Amino acid sequence: METSFQLWQSLHGDAFAGAKVLVTGGAGFIGSHIASALARLGANVVALDDLSGGGTGNFDGLGPVKFVRGSILDVSLLEKHVAGCRYVFHQAALGSVPGSVKEPVRYYDVNVTGTINVLEAARASGVERLMFAASASAYGSSEVLPKVETMAAEPISPYAGSKVAGEAFLRAYSASYPALDTAALRYFNIFGPRQNANSAYAAAIAAFATAALSGRTPTIFGDGEQSRDFTHVDNVVHSNLLAARSKQPIRGEVINVACGQRVTVNELVAEIIAFCDDSALKPSYAGERAGDVRHSLADITRAKALLGYEPIVGFRDGLAETLQWYARQQPERAPARAGPVNTA
User: Fold this and answer.
1) Is 16 within the bounds of a domain?
2) 99 within some domain
3) N or C end of the chain: which has fewer CB within 10 A?
4) How many H-runs (helices) and E-runs (strands) does the chain carry?
């Protein structure tokens, strides 16, 4: 099996060797995966994070990364650490839909004003390209599938609205300041090792896996027939690196990042329970959460055309790896069967 270094080396070679890069939110789940991949490819990586949702433990054993504790609302700190960067990978954000419903102004401040701060620092420092963590929540509750980037944005939560605003500013900056190219990568339901399962708003796979591996009942909000395009974090890293390397200007284009397949929440939980090999485990059901969408499935044609993107980790292989990682965090509850997850 390829190591992480061999995987990234085979895909991206020396494209980032010696380049200085900034990863905002670099101690978070996605940001730390991007930062560690870049470090292993020879980039000089600065990871900026206020540790509100991440932790420096995410860097353990993952290669040399310079960590700076701070916020994207701190303009002078941003300017200092963006200086000399060739690329910026902007992952910092408050990321919960329910959290945004509770605190819409806070989400605006961090996700919108913070993004403008990052763009301004990048423009002033002569950054070549900025990659932005956009969100599939921009598509809202439209029943049209698959989701294509030409569809109108219809955000139904303050979080989604903040991400759509970020996309608009990326396009505006690329149009107004052509020296700074930008790419808005719309992530679809990302999962993988190191995803925080302790938050009250933990993502589905992290929350379900931690509950099941601890022998607790996984709770499904709604009837469980809602579906998602679950996407392993390595696909997100790959898309970001491809966007940075693009020989053609991207000019703020919105680009879906996903696998192009959907799985229901009931199917997901069934596979997690099968992995745990515990016949007594059964999911419980609670009411739907405000702001959640019913179905999500990406069309990844644009990602293929503009970036040469193809998913490098499929859903079930990625789920098996992820569950094995969570099992190792709870050795006393390690499952009897640690092989690939059964196909639902």
Assistant:
1) yes
2) yes
3) N
4) 12, 13
Widest distance between CA atoms in the chain: 59
Give me the domain span that covers residue 39: 4-191+232-257
Task: Specify whether the CB–CB gap between 286 and 249 falls below 8 A.
Answer: no
Is residue 130 assigned to a domain? yes
Contact in structure between 127 and 180 (CB atoms under 8 Å): yes
How many other β-carbons are positioned within 10 Å of the β-carbon of residue 331? 7
Specify the DSSP class assigned to residue 145: S
Residue 3 makes CB contacts below 8 A (sequence gap 6+) with none
What burial class does residue 113 get, using C-beta atoms within 10 Å of its C-beta: 0-12 exposed, 13-18 middle, 19+ buried?
middle
How many residues make up the chain in this entry? Answer: 344
Residue 152: Cβ within 10 Å count: 8
- CA–CA gap between residue 58 and residue 327 (Å, rounded): 17
Q: What is the rounded average pLDDT of the residues 221-236?
A: 95
Query: Structurally, how many domains does the chain consist of?
Result: 1
In sequence order, which residues have a C-beta less than 8 Å from that of residue 304 and are 6 or more positions away?
310
pLDDT digits (tens, 9 = 90+) for 195-219: 987 765 568 899 899 899 988 989 9
* This prediction's pTM: 0.91
